[in-house]
Amino acid sequence: MRCNDYPKFEQLRRRLGGEAKCFDASPSEKTRLIGYLQRHGCTPLTAQDVASAVQALEDEELSAFLCEEGVAISHSSDGWWLLLSDDDEFFGHAGEPAIVSPVTGGERC
Fold this sequence. Notes:
Elements: H1 9-16, E1 19-20, H2 26-39, H3 47-57, E2 62-67, E3 70-75, E4 80-84
Parallel strand pairs: 1-4
Antiparallel strand pairs: 2-3, 3-4
């Protein structure tokens, strides 16, 4: 998914404002984001799936942007940004989701 035609994560964040979540906080924030998407019927398997799911939700608070490093997710009122990459172990292995909702089981978007 990496493409030099996209802006870098830091360029997006600086241009649009907000603070990047620190590396130690990112796994829990990513888990919360995936859980939120699962509650809305989606189990993303890749960073691009997360971007598509966020865009499909039409949530006024969340935004997804393609960037050189992967997908940048921002939350407008809280001002935080997360960087997701398909290289993250967070997404599991061999097309399996790292997190599956115990309630719905989720569905890939």
